[in-house]
Amino acid sequence: MAKFDEAFEKTAAIEGGYVFDPDDAGGETYKGISRRFNPSWGGWVTIDDVKKANPRKRKFDNIFDQDDALQQEVRLFYKQFYWDRFWGDDIPVQEIGEELFDTGVNLGVRRAVRFLQEGLNLLNRNQKNYVDILEDGLFGGNTLKALNAYLKKDDTSVLLKIINILQGMHYIEYMRKNPVQEKYARGWLKRVKL
What we know:
Blueprint: H1 4-15, E1 18-20, E2 28-30, E3 33-34, H2 43-53, H3 61-65, H4 68-83, H5 94-107, H6 109-122, H7 141-153, H8 156-177, H9 185-189
Antiparallel strand pairs: 1-2, 2-3
Helix pairs in contact: 1-5, 5-6, 5-8, 6-8
């Protein structure tokens, strides 16, 4: 079964620390947690207190990274709002759990699960191995059942390739719609493992 701690460590290394980029759709972020999309996250209180106490300081990562309570807030946030939403502890293969987690953190859990569901439907040999599942982005018993049926007959790497192709296409379409986002292309594409 997939393990949260392993997935978290890999994604946390990519997400980095404190950033406030006006071109980023997430706005102010810490360890990838966006204030714009998660204004009630408890860690913002600590971050605001540090910023108020150090008004001339521009870089805060050393202070934030040494705050054990803040780091625990980060872990709990990712476990609750990402890993648990796609039943990460029930995913039978670590690589798939890590892919869903990292894609979910970057693009949203529903989109990550939808990529998985699309991949499963494309790889079921026209429903000979298992029936198509609803591509709604909600992880449930049918998605887990299809995943387990897939894994009994096929190689994990093929499913991971499809998920990553879909992820890459999402980035390309997003940049085409909003060329300002092209500055993030290299960072995003590091997450697409083919």
